[in-house]
Amino acid sequence: MRYMEIACSNKPSNNLMSFRRGITEMIFDIPEMEGFVIPSSIRVCGNIRCYANDSKDDITTTAVNMDARTGVYSCFNTVTTRSLKHQTTIEQSRHFNRFMASFLPLSSSLNDVQSHLNTAANTATNAKQMKNGLVNMSKSSGTAFSLPLPTGLLSGTGQIPLSSQWGLSGLQISIQLENDTQVFHSETGLVNAAFSPYYEIENPHIVCEVMMPSADTLAQLQKQGSGQLTYQSISSYYDTISSTNAQINFNLGLGKVRSAFVNFIDSSALNNYKENGLATLMPTLSQPDGKLNAVQQVQFLKGGTQYPALFPQNNVIRDAVKTSVCDAGLLREYIDAVVPYSSNRALCMTIANANRNYILAHTTTGNPSYAIIADTGICWGLGVRYDALGGSGSDFRSQNWGLNMVLSDNDGSVVSAFIFVNSEQTLVYNPNGVQVVQ
């Protein structure tokens, strides 16, 4: 085994990466060699600093905060892996921070978020801890992080060959940074012309483990000259809904779809300092009331036909105002789509964050604001699993994937839906190039 530390290949002279300063991408090149990189060992490291404005004024006296659940992951918009030599895209995880907003609470416990994830990615269980533990403390010396990238390729159990003769010819990892307006938000929902926080990532680099094969194994690999690697990939899609009969429809072009899940947020909250654009909320009605729009019925479709359930799933909602509990069946399907329910042993979903007793507006009267909900914030979404019986998933290459929802109200508000599809893909490689078979 060899342990490698690789600096960011496009870093500026001051070694500071910042979306505000026009550096929107961090690129890490793992060179080609006669060995394998262990994908689960790859960690992105560095220090993060938060500033109140371009003058780098003290941020502790402001109402600036970050999403507690995602921590430093808030700053990552897209993660792309490529062959270093051939520059063929292997996997691209778009809306990565929104993906992590669903993945983290459904694969980690509250103790995980409070302990090792707090150390690795600076996550927190509530907004106040995030404000005091990361945002306020990061200016003077920076706050260190060392986090994994749970994409399909980089979280697999296999080994990624780096050779130019029997591998990918090196591996390039590209991370597109997120806009400051999506990373930060105001705790009070009030901003002015002076409200302009931004972040900097100092000394970005990755660390990883590389396994060097023995002489006999290397000779066999060189003689073989080609190979393939199967992994679980996450493909992301985006759509909006704005009526009581909400319909989402996509041609996935994927052959082995194992599951799909969706999280929602009011479109006006995206890239808006007034709201937390990484919250995973239910469909909502327009501001200033910020009331919830009850999801009364859900149907997942394949080629326009209900599938895998051959019937509509009716929510427990009877009165959109008085019903405070969420449908346990829909929540179970959501969990099952991210981590199989039968083997899931770590969750942040609790009674405190999986209910309807909140509103989108920042107010101290009536139901509480979504921004102060405990246990990492509101945890809600819709999901479906296609390989519950241990199969290879469902084929969506010739039939469209769809989701229909019946909502209780319609006031013209637009809600964004982020769709994430988990499918099995195969990477084929030889000295002439690499190809992804979906």
Give structural notes.
With 438 residues, the protein is an alpha+beta fold. It contains eight helices and 23 strands. The strands form five sheets. Strands 1, 2, 4, 5, 9, 10 and 13 form a seven-stranded antiparallel beta sheet that branches. The radius of gyration is 22 Å and the shape is globular. The model has no long low-confidence stretch (mean pLDDT 91).
Please, what is the CATH homologous superfamily of the largest domain? Hexon Major Viral Coat Protein, domain 3
Structural class by SSE content: alpha+beta
Termini separation comes to 32 Å
- The low-pLDDT segments are none
The total count of helices amounts to 8
What fraction, in percent, of the residue positions are helical? Answer: 10-25%
> Care to count the β-strands?
23
Structurally, the number of domains stands at: 2
Q: Could you name the CATH topology of the largest domain?
A: Hexon Major Viral Coat Protein, domain 3
Strand content: 25-35%
User: What is the CATH-assigned architecture of the largest domain?
Assistant: Alpha-Beta Complex
The description of the largest β-sheet is: 7 strands, antiparallel
CATH class of the largest domain: Alpha Beta
The average pLDDT is 91
Summarize this entry quickly.
The chain is α+β, with helices and mostly antiparallel strands. It contains eight helices and 23 strands.
